[in-house]
Amino acid sequence: MKCAIKGKICRSIERGSAIVMVLVFTTICLIILLGLLGWVTSNARLTQRHCQYNRSIAAAEAATEKILTAISTDYKNQGQGYVLANLDTYRHMYPTSSEDPAWADFSFMNLQGTADRTYVQYTPGNSFKVLSAQYQGLKGFANTFQIISNAREVNSAASVLGAVQQQVQLSTIPLFQFAMFYNLDYECNALPNITVTGPVHCNANIYLTPVNTLTFNSDVTAVGTISTSPKAGNACGNPAGTIVFKGAHDSKVSTLSLPIRTNNSAATVRH
Question: What pTM, to 2 d.p., does this model score?
Fold first, then answer.
């Protein structure tokens, strides 16, 4: 009788231990599952915020590019005085839904949080110094424009702000620093050996077809292209001379506008 009772007690203890172990493992599995669900939810939220941030950054960059293009175009066509007189106009510029319906999904603001505005700050170039942009090595009066846009995606659960800052230098460069400056096409069919020691710039195209050796010790830039073949209609043919560039030689650069009225056309420059 004692043995039978003892056997039942042992089996009850074993069953109780099994239940406890099942409960322990079930709890562990639930904890792991909850942790996994939390990680997935957090990762999805972070991914959503990251994508929203990238969209906001792209929108803010579009705002700064719009103003940068307007300032550069006005500076080239109308001059510095026109740009400075219209700084407040640039501050009211931002991408609008009339340009593209997608911009209705974003709100734009300046550093002070004012809606439908962009931060534009002008720093005048009061000193004659070496320029740090494309025409480095030349000296000029560098006028700096700082453009900052803040953009946020509207109708979104996450309030993610994207900000982009751009700085551009619009400089006044004395022409006497150039060894050669052409507002029209520059054609070179030089017969003797020639060495050009200073910078060369052309607001159109450059055609280099020397008979002997043509050496450029400094940078050569052209708004159009730099070609080693003659211009159409040139009767000199295509001599097999040698061209040596000791500096950079870049095509498709920005125009260096001559401050002659508000028009940089060939006819105006001739007069």
Answer: 0.61
